[in-house]
Design a protein that fits this description.
about 180 residues, alpha+beta, six-stranded antiparallel sheet, four-stranded antiparallel sheet, 4 helices, about 35% strand, globular
Length: about 180
Protein backbone atom coordinates (compact mmCIF):
# COMPACT_ATOMS: atom_id res chain seq x y z
CA UNK A 1 0.00 0.00 0.00
CA UNK A 2 1.45 3.35 -1.01
CA UNK A 3 2.10 5.82 1.80
CA UNK A 4 -0.21 8.80 2.14
CA UNK A 5 1.08 12.29 2.96
CA UNK A 6 0.99 13.22 6.64
CA UNK A 7 -1.31 16.12 5.73
CA UNK A 8 -3.91 13.83 4.11
CA UNK A 9 -6.42 14.69 6.86
CA UNK A 10 -6.93 17.54 9.28
CA UNK A 11 -5.12 16.98 12.59
CA UNK A 12 -5.51 18.09 16.18
CA UNK A 13 -2.35 18.16 18.31
CA UNK A 14 -3.11 17.83 22.02
CA UNK A 15 -0.21 19.02 24.16
CA UNK A 16 -0.30 17.75 27.73
CA UNK A 17 1.98 18.02 30.74
CA UNK A 18 3.03 15.36 33.25
CA UNK A 19 5.40 16.53 35.92
CA UNK A 20 8.04 18.50 34.06
CA UNK A 21 7.57 16.74 30.71
CA UNK A 22 5.31 17.71 27.84
CA UNK A 23 3.91 15.18 25.39
CA UNK A 24 1.72 15.53 22.31
CA UNK A 25 -1.15 13.31 21.21
CA UNK A 26 -2.18 13.59 17.54
CA UNK A 27 -5.75 12.87 16.44
CA UNK A 28 -6.90 12.96 12.83
CA UNK A 29 -10.28 14.54 12.18
CA UNK A 30 -12.48 15.82 9.41
CA UNK A 31 -12.19 19.50 8.63
CA UNK A 32 -15.78 19.89 9.86
CA UNK A 33 -14.84 19.01 13.45
CA UNK A 34 -14.95 22.24 15.44
CA UNK A 35 -12.41 22.83 18.22
CA UNK A 36 -15.23 22.78 20.82
CA UNK A 37 -16.52 19.44 19.49
CA UNK A 38 -13.02 17.98 19.42
CA UNK A 39 -12.39 19.25 22.97
CA UNK A 40 -15.49 17.48 24.23
CA UNK A 41 -14.47 14.23 22.52
CA UNK A 42 -10.85 14.25 23.75
CA UNK A 43 -12.00 15.22 27.25
CA UNK A 44 -14.33 12.18 27.33
CA UNK A 45 -11.54 9.89 26.11
CA UNK A 46 -9.07 11.15 28.75
CA UNK A 47 -11.69 11.01 31.52
CA UNK A 48 -12.11 7.30 30.72
CA UNK A 49 -8.39 6.79 31.38
CA UNK A 50 -8.06 9.02 34.44
CA UNK A 51 -7.67 6.17 36.98
CA UNK A 52 -4.79 4.72 34.93
CA UNK A 53 -2.79 7.94 34.53
CA UNK A 54 -0.50 10.03 36.68
CA UNK A 55 -1.48 13.68 37.10
CA UNK A 56 -1.85 15.06 33.59
CA UNK A 57 -2.86 18.55 32.45
CA UNK A 58 -4.10 19.40 28.97
CA UNK A 59 -2.02 22.51 28.20
CA UNK A 60 -2.78 23.43 24.58
CA UNK A 61 -4.55 22.20 21.45
CA UNK A 62 -3.34 23.01 17.94
CA UNK A 63 -5.05 22.39 14.60
CA UNK A 64 -3.59 21.71 11.13
CA UNK A 65 -6.00 21.78 8.20
CA UNK A 66 -6.03 19.06 5.56
CA UNK A 67 -3.17 19.67 3.12
CA UNK A 68 -1.29 21.91 5.58
CA UNK A 69 1.89 21.17 7.52
CA UNK A 70 1.37 24.19 9.79
CA UNK A 71 -0.58 23.96 13.05
CA UNK A 72 -2.10 26.86 14.94
CA UNK A 73 -3.44 27.06 18.50
CA UNK A 74 -7.22 26.71 18.93
CA UNK A 75 -9.47 27.02 21.97
CA UNK A 76 -11.46 23.88 22.84
CA UNK A 77 -12.64 24.96 26.29
CA UNK A 78 -10.74 22.12 27.97
CA UNK A 79 -7.28 23.69 28.18
CA UNK A 80 -6.13 23.46 31.79
CA UNK A 81 -8.25 20.35 32.47
CA UNK A 82 -6.63 17.73 34.68
CA UNK A 83 -6.73 13.95 34.49
CA UNK A 84 -5.16 11.22 36.61
CA UNK A 85 -3.52 11.58 40.00
CA UNK A 86 -0.18 11.33 41.69
CA UNK A 87 3.18 12.79 40.79
CA UNK A 88 4.90 10.84 38.00
CA UNK A 89 8.11 8.97 38.63
CA UNK A 90 10.87 9.17 36.04
CA UNK A 91 9.81 5.76 34.73
CA UNK A 92 6.14 6.74 34.35
CA UNK A 93 7.07 9.64 32.06
CA UNK A 94 8.30 7.06 29.53
CA UNK A 95 5.43 4.55 29.95
CA UNK A 96 2.47 4.76 27.60
CA UNK A 97 -0.88 3.23 26.73
CA UNK A 98 -1.08 2.57 22.99
CA UNK A 99 -4.45 2.03 21.28
CA UNK A 100 -4.37 0.43 17.82
CA UNK A 101 -6.98 0.10 15.09
CA UNK A 102 -7.47 -0.30 11.36
CA UNK A 103 -9.67 1.45 8.82
CA UNK A 104 -11.76 -0.40 6.24
CA UNK A 105 -9.27 1.02 3.72
CA UNK A 106 -6.56 -1.09 5.40
CA UNK A 107 -4.71 1.76 7.09
CA UNK A 108 -3.36 1.18 10.59
CA UNK A 109 -3.90 3.84 13.24
CA UNK A 110 -2.37 4.35 16.70
CA UNK A 111 -3.07 6.67 19.59
CA UNK A 112 -0.65 6.78 22.53
CA UNK A 113 -1.03 8.47 25.91
CA UNK A 114 1.97 8.77 28.22
CA UNK A 115 1.84 8.50 32.01
CA UNK A 116 0.42 5.01 32.56
CA UNK A 117 0.84 4.15 36.24
CA UNK A 118 -0.47 0.58 36.43
CA UNK A 119 1.16 -2.83 36.35
CA UNK A 120 2.64 -4.26 33.16
CA UNK A 121 1.70 -7.96 33.34
CA UNK A 122 1.86 -9.03 29.67
CA UNK A 123 2.17 -5.48 28.29
CA UNK A 124 -1.46 -5.46 27.14
CA UNK A 125 -4.66 -4.47 28.93
CA UNK A 126 -7.82 -5.92 27.43
CA UNK A 127 -11.37 -4.67 27.79
CA UNK A 128 -12.11 -7.73 29.94
CA UNK A 129 -9.27 -6.86 32.37
CA UNK A 130 -9.85 -3.13 32.67
CA UNK A 131 -13.07 -1.10 32.70
CA UNK A 132 -11.17 2.15 31.89
CA UNK A 133 -9.70 0.50 28.78
CA UNK A 134 -13.15 -0.82 27.77
CA UNK A 135 -14.60 2.67 28.15
CA UNK A 136 -11.73 4.31 26.26
CA UNK A 137 -12.01 1.84 23.37
CA UNK A 138 -15.78 2.36 23.29
CA UNK A 139 -15.24 6.13 23.00
CA UNK A 140 -12.72 5.59 20.18
CA UNK A 141 -15.13 3.27 18.36
CA UNK A 142 -18.11 5.62 18.76
CA UNK A 143 -18.97 7.09 15.36
CA UNK A 144 -17.39 10.52 15.21
CA UNK A 145 -15.39 12.89 13.08
CA UNK A 146 -12.26 12.34 15.21
CA UNK A 147 -9.68 9.61 15.72
CA UNK A 148 -9.63 8.80 11.99
CA UNK A 149 -7.00 6.80 10.15
CA UNK A 150 -4.68 8.59 7.71
CA UNK A 151 -7.04 7.70 4.84
CA UNK A 152 -9.81 9.72 6.55
CA UNK A 153 -11.89 6.64 7.37
CA UNK A 154 -13.27 5.91 10.85
CA UNK A 155 -11.23 2.88 12.01
CA UNK A 156 -12.24 -0.05 14.17
CA UNK A 157 -10.16 0.10 17.32
CA UNK A 158 -8.95 -3.19 18.81
CA UNK A 159 -10.34 -4.24 22.23
CA UNK A 160 -7.10 -3.60 24.12
CA UNK A 161 -4.33 -1.12 24.82
CA UNK A 162 -0.67 -2.05 24.69
CA UNK A 163 1.70 -0.73 27.34
CA UNK A 164 5.36 -0.04 26.88
CA UNK A 165 8.28 2.29 27.41
CA UNK A 166 9.21 4.78 24.71
CA UNK A 167 12.92 4.46 23.84
CA UNK A 168 13.39 8.22 23.32
CA UNK A 169 12.03 9.08 26.77
CA UNK A 170 13.83 6.12 28.30
CA UNK A 171 17.21 7.44 27.12
CA UNK A 172 16.42 11.03 28.11
CA UNK A 173 15.19 10.13 31.59
CA UNK A 174 18.16 7.99 32.61
CA UNK A 175 19.89 9.48 35.57
Amino acid sequence: MAPLPVSNTARYFVDYQQGTHEHTLVARATGATSPASFGSIINGFLLNLTTLLVATTLTRVRFAAQGSTVSNPVITGFEGSGYGSGAPTNEQNAIYLDFVGRSSGGRRVRLAVFGYKGAFSDFRLTEAESAPIANAVASLNAPSTCFLAIDGIDPTWYPYANTGANAYWQRNLRV
